[in-house]
Write a structure and sequence with these properties.
With 427 residues, the protein is α+β, with helices and mostly antiparallel strands. The chain is 49% helix and 8% strand. The protein contains 19 helices and ten strands. Strands 3-4-5-2-1-8 form a six-stranded mixed β-sheet. A two-stranded antiparallel sheet has the order 6-7. Strands 9-10 form a two-stranded parallel sheet. The longest helix has 18 residues. It is elongated, with a radius of gyration of 26 Å.
């Protein structure tokens, strides 16, 4: 039985990046051997085990054969006779198809250069900053398109080899991408959104045609004009990518990044006769997001924040012009008093939107701090006491809510939270 360090751990170590997750391949073993040594089985589709002490993943060497369209249409063969070279040959791209024998990996995670097992030229492609498929079998798994796009978001200086990009386009044309299950699409999409340059993921998906099949609501944004006085970058697709990259720069969590992706979807179906204006795009964005989230089974926290940002981002941008009553209505529509953390995320998404424009990357977004201050003032009110006092006076039903609303407005008026200077408008 032989064990080898493989995949991303080898790639990242060669790039000089810290290695946090180590994957190992075991050659010459059976599931029974692994269980006898205390390994814990976790794999559903193929034999994968967790080390009893380190909890690293150990997979039996295997080969794969396509049997049906889509992600699950594979016959997996894992047996003691499968060699390391056969296992590496089934991998997606060359930079992920390198290995080092476990015995040659030192305590510091390093090894001598001559110990690298690299049958497909992965080290050369690393130096050239190229993603290149290992073999034509790449086309058998459409998830690999998503994985290459996600890696492009992590390693933004890498390019996709022309022959690999052509193969990806053929996979899209043949309908392989249409068989991807929603959960896997969301898994790769969400991971790509959390990388350092998420716009690169969408650039790769767009180049190969997969974006139009997986996220047509996003793909159609390119070429849609916006008002140059609000958006010097003009193109809506370019703007959304700038917003996404700003969310990465500001280290936003996943719900914020997804909200940034979806906030302007409605601009893609603005009636052409009113362009470059986008009247009512907020409601159209929310409607399109609803269908997208249903289709990809997006988690509730991402879905709810994206809906709020799509519906209210223009109002948040204009909030420096609002009086106390309008500010309270905004807080109440956003459910900011019950869910202040989510409201804070909405403000961060709106800052990304405002700064994700040509020439505005270093701009101050006064609305974010102002609305935080407004919320702090309103939170100081004892709404239970206000409600109790109203009931004692014979007020009931919706009128109690009106009393609370009026108290919030008065509190803001007294606190003088409505006079912050306005900043550049955003649409």
């Amino acid at each position: 039985m032989e064990t080898f360090l493989v995949g991303g751990a080898v790639r990242d170590a060669l790039l000089g990046f810290p290695v946090t997750d180590r994957d190992w391949v075991v050659v010459g073993a059976t599931p029974e051997h692994m269980l006898a040594q205390g390994f814990v089985p976790v794999g559903k589709d193929f034999p994968v085990f967790l080390h009893p002490q380190t909890h690293d993943e150990y997979a039996l060497a295997r080969t794969e054969r396509k049997t049906a369209p889509g992600y699950h249409g594979f016959a997996i063969h894992a047996a003691p006779g499968v060699t390391l070279e056969e296992d590496l040959a089934r991998r997606d791209i060359t930079v992920n198809a390198m290995a080092v024998a476990a015995g040659h990996v030192g305590p510091d995670g390093r090894w001598d250069a001559q110990q690298l097992i690299d049958p497909h030229g992965g080290q050369q492609d690393l130096a050239a900053q190229v993603f290149r498929h290992v073999s034509p079998a790449f086309r058998e798994d459409p998830v690999r398109i998503l994985r290459v796009a996600r890696l492009a978001a992590r390693f933004a200086d890498f390019t996709v080899a022309p022959e690999t990009l052509q193969l990806m386009r053929q996979m899209v044309t043949s309908g392989e991408v249409d068989h991807l299950v929603p959960e896997r699409v969301w898994q790769e999409l969400s991971r790509g959104l959390m990388e350092a340059k998420p716009s690169r993921m969408f650039a790769v998906l767009r180049d190969c045609g997969a974006l139009a099949r997986l996220l047509p609501e996003v793909d159609c944004l390119w070429g849609v004009a916006q008002r140059a006085d609000y958006h010097p970058e003009v193109d809506t697709g370019v703007h959304v990518m700038m917003v996404l990259d700003m969310s990465a720069r500001l280290q936003a969590p996943l719900p914020v990044r997804f909200a940034c992706l979806g906030h302007d979807l409605g601009k893609g179906n603005t009636p052409t006769h009113i362009l470059p204006r986008h009247l009512g795009h907020e409601q159209r964005s929310a409607q399109l997001l609803s269908g997208l989230c249903e289709r990809l089974r997006v988690p509730a926290d991402c879905r709810e924040l994206a809906d709020m940002v799509a519906s209210e981002h223009s109002n948040i941008h204009r909030s420096t012009e609002f009086d106390a009553a309008a500010l309270v209505r905004l807080l109440e529509r956003c459910d900011a008093l019950r869910k202040p953390e989510r409201f804070g995320q909405a403000l961060l998404a709106c800052e990304c939107d405002a700064r994700g424009r040509l020439g505005y990357a270093e701009a101050t977004y006064a609305q974010r701090q102002k609305l935080r201050d407004v919320l702090s003032v309103v939170q100081t009110l004892d709404t239970k006491a206000i409600a109790a006092s109203a009931m004692e006076a014979g007020v009931a039903g919706k009128k109690i809510g009106e009393r609370i609303h009026q108290a919030r407005v008065r509190a803001l008026q007294l606190a003088s939270c409505t006079g912050a200077p306005a900043t550049a408008a955003v649409s």
